[in-house]
Design a protein that fits this description.
Elements: E1 2-6, E2 37-38, E3 48-50, E4 54-58, E5 70-74, E6 77-80, E7 83-84, E8 90-94, E9 109-113, E10 116-117, E11 126-127, E12 161-172, E13 181-191, E14 197-203, E15 210-211, E16 219-220, E17 230-231, H1 239-247, E18 251-255, H2 258-261, H3 272-291, E19 306-316, H4 318-331, E20 349-355, E21 370-375, H5 388-391, E22 403-408, H6 454-473, E23 498-503, E24 510-511, E25 518-520, E26 523-526, E27 560-566, E28 573-576, E29 588-594, E30 602-610, E31 615-623, E32 638-643, H7 645-649, E33 657-664, E34 669-679, E35 692-696, E36 698-702, E37 708-712, E38 715-719, E39 723-730, E40 737-744, E41 754-758, E42 767-777, E43 779-781, E44 785-791, E45 799-805, E46 807-809, E47 813-820, E48 828-834, H8 848-855, E49 870-876, E50 882-888, E51 899-905, E52 919-925
Parallel strand pairs: 14-18, 14-19, 19-20, 20-21, 21-22, 35-43, 36-44, 46-52
Antiparallel strand pairs: 1-2, 1-49, 3-4, 4-8, 5-6, 5-9, 7-8, 9-10, 10-11, 12-13, 13-18, 15-16, 15-17, 22-23, 24-34, 25-28, 26-27, 27-34, 28-33, 29-32, 29-34, 30-31, 30-33, 35-38, 37-41, 39-40, 39-42, 42-44, 45-47, 47-50, 48-49, 48-51, 51-52
Helix pairs in contact: 1-6, 3-4
Length: 928
């Protein structure tokens, strides 16, 4: 099989159904050329290079280091997570790490980060379905009616002055990270506070690690920093939040994690476990210093002591996923070989605040209260996957912990941290939301009426962090209506428009679409499915929903919503759970419903029916869409409540409610029901349930030369009690998944997935056999992905080039044969480029159609072939031992000397000739 490359890579895109290896590498290519093609003329999108070991994408401009995970996808499936290059533009995915080894299954290859495609040649980024992220309909006016103020305003400073200090301890080693990680923190404490004070610990997200002073944009992701560079002080970016909390009596500490950011691309979980270990190492030190103040660093000895029974963890972006894992690991210990902390747990995490967080594992901790801040203009974690910290807790445990989502209209990702904010940061910083100046986004461009300034955004963030502290740590229930969908606002956050919804707390039984529920009149739709007929939102359509953020699979079982669509009022949708629900003791029915962005006044009547057939109309809800564009994830549910008083008056048996009815009263429209719950006010105390914990490991084995060996997927179940998880098995050839529901018990081998490894003596790529695990009920999942990696242990065949016809007359074809010393079980690639020689063949000496197919250019103006951007990729298919390749020449009327051509093997790393590499040479004689 033969491929030639047209030079001039500008961005990533699809690799178009070729038998090419999935992998990733780097090549600097000359600008201004056409896409990669096959000899048959099949055109490939620009930006990709292939080798037998790697798939490589190079961006035309640096890709900023951020929290969203850069991923390679093929045919709507995750292919793998590439490693970034030092140049900030190049990403490499080893074939060993790819989710499929089926080389014919690489159609529609894309580069995606949190729902954004990074493969546009110019202009604004695109969403993951390929649509250009240009403005949609104009959003509703920014001046939406203000919500009533709450009974308390957590954004108001408290009675204490503040003291600032810092510490920098010896760095620590964490599993899987070759370089030690710093133990550095910024501390702000209340001045004059009596007694031990609750502790709030902040963890920043994934950002560039180092910068060169005096430059505008010279930042790196290195660790440690190179000579002449300084660490970016990301941990100092929350000083305003710390000062507010410290004035209210909290001891606050913000820790640095540059050492993790500079190495987490090597971690299968994106660094979640490492961040948890770092957080708990700091908490362990604070437990020591609280018990023995004299052991604290000198700078801290004059500060108030910490009360480790009352800890709030605050994490931004990957820091959010990190503190979630720290809360999990504090309740349910992780496997010792994966953990970087080995001591006792001497603290109690009362709650978490997660700001624009990632959650790659989709594994929230159900029994630790949380508030997730979702920035409506997030240009980094743009799919707002942090919504899973709310939705993903439903039904997992007792449900008494409040999990709230706080949607901040007009907020971006970076400006919650002043060290990531232009004009405030010590190092170079940018606005993460990119907007085309010629097509400004109506919601999120810098001058949009809905967009917040950096100071407005940071003030809103600080206010809602303090609201969570007041509710989770101080136990002040007056803060709950600011967080739980009641619809009250904190005036200190003005003019930010902040919307909330929640699950858990005093909510009772719920109508959930995730189990064996029956729906009539509407459609039970899949949150994640490539089939538009099954999906809640058309995968090829416009707009995204945080509720439907993708995981590592192309479809998920029992992750659903109820979709309503109508062209006339009156068509009722009925939802029937498998068993009657009890709404007894509830004040209202709280529904989480969303409608398309920028729509207003969608009206739905709500009714319930009991098991005896009595029906009660509870009332009417009116739903407005969020301000949104094609760049935002604005299909987000509003919480709306209808009183249950009408049901009591009608004599309905609220202990046995059989069904929920939604009847549209608007002329036409769409709506999606996420869930509906019995609701009453209050915040019950949270007692963590004894749950089992599941962690998937990684076993590495050699292929061997003969025989068949069987290996079991390495899964550890610890903790207490039984639970249920859904296990997805990934086919190593196609990347397709199969799933099943499994009941797990501590110490058991209930997740019984085995792999057969057949030994042979032929060279092949490593093969990855993976499983993924997600909690369903009664369990938590730590390391969610792992399996068995089968390493090739055979040498690559020797590759030789022999001439078939290397001295021909004009009109004949030059030809060569690429030969392997023996067949391999994978495709073997070699890349060649023309090099200048004396009396060189020109673009008019070869067939014009052949030249167009190989280079995308015309013969005119006539020029040497080495100036025609002629690159050739030769591959020997798996199971074969050779391939022939030819260059067709043409007869001309010019008498001339013999002319030559020379192709040299090119290194995949630097596009330069490989020392000692293969060479193809040929000579063409004049025909006259």
């Amino acid at each position: 099989m033969i491929r030639a490359r047209r030079i001039g890579v500008t961005a990533v895109a699809a690799l178009a159904a070729l038998a090419a290896s999935p992998g990733l590498a780097q090549a600097q290519q000359p600008p201004g050329s056409a896409p990669l093609t096959t000899v048959s003329g099949t055109e490939l999108p620009p930006g990709w290079q292939m080798s037998g070991e790697q798939l490589i994408w190079r961006s035309p401009s640096p890709v900023p280091m951020g929290d969203a995970r850069v991923e390679f996808h093929a045919n709507d499936r995750l292919l793998g997570v590439p490693a970034p290059g030092e140049d900030g533009r190049t990403f490499r995915l080893s074939l060993d790490d790819a989710a499929t080894t089926d080389l014919q299954d690489l159609g529609d290859l894309q580069v995606i980060a949190a729902g954004r495609r990074l493969d546009t040649p110019d202009g604004p980024p695109r969403d993951a379905r390929g649509g250009r992220r240009s403005p949609a309909a104009a959003p509703p006016a920014a001046g939406a009616r203000k919500a009533p103020a709450g009974a308390v305003d957590p954004g108001s400073p408290g009675p204490y002055g503040t003291q600032r200090a810092a510490y920098d301890l010896d760095p620590v080693r964490l599993p899987g990270f070759p370089e030690p990680v710093e133990m550095r923190a910024e501390v702000v404490a209340p001045a004059g506070a009596v007694g031990r004070r609750p502790l709030a610990l902040f963890l920043h997200g994934r950002h560039a690690t180092c910068y060169k002073p005096g430059t505008e944009d010279d930042v790196t992701g290195d660790w440690p920093c190179a000579d002449g560079y300084r660490p970016i002080p990301s941990h100092r970016g929350y000083l305003r939040d710390q000062q507010l909390l410290a004035s209210q009596g909290y001891l606050t500490v913000s820790i640095s994690a540059n050492g993790i950011n500079g190495q987490d691309w090597q971690a299968e979980d994106g660094g979640a476990q490492a961040r948890s270990s770092l957080v708990r190492r700091h908490l362990d030190r604070w437990a020591d210093w609280s018990a023995h103040p004299a052991k604290a660093p000198a700078a801290l000895r004059g500060l108030t002591r910490a009360d480790l029974r009352r800890v709030l963890l605050v994490g931004h972006s990957r820091g959010g996923e990190g503190v979630n894992r720290a809360a999990m690991d504090s309740l349910y210990p992780p496997p010792a070989d994966q953990d970087g902390y080995r001591g006792r747990v001497r603290w109690t995490v009362r709650g978490t605040v997660l700001i624009g967080p990632t959650i790659f594992g989709q594994n929230p901790v159900a029994d630790v209260p949380s508030t997730t801040i979702l920035p409506g203009c997030d240009g980094d974690v743009s799919d707002l996957q942090g919504e899973v910290f709310v939705d993903g807790t439903r039904g997992v445990s007792r449900g008494t912990a409040l999990h709230s989502a706080v949607y901040v209209v007009g907020a971006n990702h970076n400006f919650f941290n002043t060290e990531w904010t232009p004009g405030q940061a010590e190092a170079p910083a940018t606005d993460d939301f990119w907007s085309d100046p010629e097509q400004p986004d109506p919601v999120c461009s810098a001058n949009a009426p809905t967009r917040l300034t950096a100071d407005q955004q940071h003030r809103a963030g600080a206010t809602y962090i303090a609201a969570a502290a007041r509710l989770f740590v101080a136990g002040d229930d007056r803060a709950r209506p600011l967080l739980d969908g009641t619809g009250l606002r904190a005036p200190s956050a003005d003019p930010a428009r902040v919307l909330t919804h929640a699950v858990g707390a005093a909510r009772g039984a719920g109508f959930l679409p995730d189990g064996p529920v029956r729906v009539t009149g509407g459609r039970l739709c899949a949150a994640v499915d490539p089939d538009p007929a099954a999906a809640c939102l058309d995968p090829e359509g416009q707009g995204r929903s945080p509720h439907f953020a993708r995981w590592d699979t192309d479809r998920e079982t029992d992750r659903r919503a109820v979709a309503l669509g109508w062209s006339a009022p009156g068509a009722t949708t009925t939802v029937r759970p498998p068993e009657p629900l009890s709404l007894a003791g509830s004040h209202s029915l709280a529904l989480r419903v969303f409608v398309p962005p920028n729509t207003t006044g969608t009206r739905l009547d709500v009714a319930v029916t009991d098991t005896s057939g009595r029906r009660a109309a509870l009332g009417r809800i009116t739903v407005d869409g969020l301000p949104g564009s094609e760049s935002t994830a604005s299909y987000w549910a509003r919480e709306l409540r209808v009183p249950l008083t009408a049901a009591a008056r009608a004599g309905l048996d609220l202990r046995h409610v059989r069904s929920l009815e939604l009847t549209p009263r608007s002329p036409s429209g769409q709506a999606w029901l996420m869930d509906a719950w019995g609701w009453r006010p209050g915040t019950p105390s949270v007692r963590p349930t004894a749950l089992s914990r599941v962690d998937v490991g990684r076993t590495v084995v050699k292929e061997g030369d003969e025989g068949v060996r069987t290996y079991r997927m390495p899964v550890r179940v610890s903790g207490r009690g039984s639970g249920q998880v859904r296990v997805y098995t990934v086919d190593p050839v196609t990347g397709e998944t199969r799933d099943k529901l499994v009941t797990v018990r501590p110490g058991g081998q209930d997740i019984d997935v085995s792999v057969e490894v057949r030994g042979n003596t032929r060279y092949s790529e490593d093969v990855r056999h993976d499983i993924l695990v997600k909690a369903v009920r009664g369990t938590v999942v730590g390391s969610y992905r792992g399996g068995v990696l089968v390493e090739n242990d055979d040498a690559m065949p020797t590759v030789t080039i022999t001439p078939v016809a290397d001295r021909v007359t004009e009109g004949q074809a030059l030809a060569w044969r690429l030969t392997l010393s023996e067949a391999a079980d994978t495709e073997i690639w070699k890349l060649f480029r023309t090099q200048p020689v004396a009396d060189e063949l020109s673009t008019k000496d070869v067939d014009a159609n052949w030249l167009r197919e190989q280079t995308g250019s015309e013969p005119d103006p006539e020029r040497p072939l080495s100036q025609a951007d002629l690159w050739v990729g030769l591959s020997v298919p798996a199971g074969s031992t050779g391939v022939d390749w030819s260059v067709p020449t043409v007869v001309d009327d010019v008498r001339e000397r013999a002319e030559s051509v020379r192709f040299e093997e090119i290194s995949w790393d630097d596009d330069e000739p490989r020392p000692g590499g293969l060479v193809l040479t040929g000579t063409v004689l004049d025909a006259s």
